[in-house]
Design goal:
about 150 residues; alpha+beta; four-stranded antiparallel sheet; about 30% helix; globular
């Protein structure tokens, strides 16, 4: 089956669908849907960072958002029925490349402990840090190790 995945920068018009996608994930679910507002998406796509998405046949399958203030990944999510297609890996690569191009010495993110994302970052060479009592695990990657996310 031939797929026609299209990657592009996220736009303000995409925010409602990004929010729906964010709320549909199986892991790293929000304890309260009100924690991430539409205004937050707006801010991250305009002044606080930049976002990218993957779409197929007009439907958004995944997105990433980078925070330019601290060099972190604010969001990286893929629709549950589109997992395993390399979409998350490509979106992560796009966000990391952009943050490194902005001059950040490293990229950081956090995710739920014991999730598939936790295992993915650790397996791809990201530096894992977990403090006693933490509810999430933190990761960082340096520019010379960013090829690790491509392998």
């Amino acid at each position: 089956m031939k797929t026609n995945l299209n990657y592009r920068q996220a736009e303000l018009k995409d925010i409602p669908e990004l929010s729906v996608l964010r709320l549909s994930v199986r892991e790293n679910q929000l304890s309260s849907p009100d924690k991430v507002t539409l205004a937050m998406y707006h801010d991250y796509l305009t002044t606080l960072g930049q976002g990218w998405l993957c779409e197929e046949d007009g439907q958004i399958l995944g997105f990433s958002v980078a925070d330019v203030r601290d060099g972190s990944i604010w969001a990286l999510f893929v629709r549950p029925d589109s997992e395993g297609r390399g979409i998350g890996r490509t979106l992560l690569e796009m966000a990391c490349d952009w943050l490194f191009a902005q001059g950040h010495p490293k990229v950081s993110l956090s995710t739920g402990i014991g999730t598939r994302a936790d295992r993915f970052y650790e397996a791809h060479g990201w530096q894992r840090e977990l403090q006693p009592g933490d509810r999430e695990v933190s990761y960082t990657v340096l520019p010379n190790l960013r090829k690790a996310i491509r392998s």
